[in-house]
Amino acid sequence: MTGTPPHVLRNRSAWDRWAAGYAEAGLRSWAADEPTWGIWAVPEAQAGVLPPDLDGLDTVELGCGTGYVSAWLARRGARPAGLDNSAAQLATARALQERFGLRFPLLHASAEHVPLADATFDIAISEYGASIWCDPYAWIPEAARLLRPRGQLIFLVNSVQLMLSIPDEDGLPATERLLRPYFGMHRFEWPDDESVEFHLGHGDMIRLLRRCGLEVEDLIEIRPAPGATASHPLATLEWARQWSSEEVWKARKPN
Ligand SMILES: C[S@@+](CC[C@H](N)C(=O)[O-])C[C@H]1O[C@@H](n2cnc3c(N)ncnc32)[C@H](O)[C@@H]1O
Question: For 84-116, how does the pLDDT look when each residue is reduced to its tens digit (9 = 90+)?
Fold first, then answer.
């Protein structure tokens, strides 16, 4: 596709290959009554990611994957739409919609270039979707464009601490050493993996959100409960009880 950045194409083929391995977890999350967040599955009641009242709100999930976050929003009264770069992930999302009898629009597109009108959503949300697989300098302006006045952007990412201390080798948890520079952090590529991730330092993220006309409302640093288990080996529980392993940003478009 002309004009599509190489990292978007690389991530599309990676997620098309990985999709089958995420179907089972997607099914479990669709089946869950209460939303849980991130690798530690912290319950919504503890994490406080969502606004208390979603009734009648138009939401868009950027990088929806199997679509369970949008399903949770729909069950709380929202009118969701999901967008994803991977046709294979969307096929799982469609199958789960059929299985649970809960349908909402699913769009095959990149969150860096969204074929939807300005100011059409009250919430744009991403849990490990566009929030880490898209260039923030491309997807955050798009998310801001899609929001109505008073609309809220909510996204979950790996923490800065984790990204600085996770080894290059796949499957090894975060260490107690800083393994790469903080200043200039942006694009991450791993030795045995053709996908591309993006992570910004806090100052750069705050400046970007503000430049997109958004006011930062919160930065929730996720702390798992004692005894929690992780769905991915990114950090040990001992590590994640001491340092933040995941963070949730909330920002709002003013009136
Ligand atoms: C870990 S999943 C997160 C979604 C959801 N929370 C889940 O676990 O099913 C990451 C998703 O981001 C999607 N993604 C990667 N690059 C994207 C892009 N440029 N635009 C939209 N989605 C993208 C992938 O296709 C994948 O489905």
Answer: 999 999 999 999 999 999 999 999 999 999 999
- The Cα 186–Cα 32 span in angstroms is 34
Within 44-146, strands assigned E span 58-62, 79-84, 106-108, 121-127
Contact 16, 187 (CB under 8 A): no
To which residue do tokens 């963070």 refer?
A: 247
* C-alpha of residue 65 to centroid of ligand 1, in Å: 5
pLDDT at 70 over 50: yes
Per-residue HEC secondary structure of 139-153 comes to HHHHHHHHEEEEEEE
On the question of pLDDT at 191 being above 90, the answer is: no
Say yes or no: CB of residue 30 within 6 Å of ligand 1: no
Cβ atoms of 32 and 231 closer than 8 Å: no
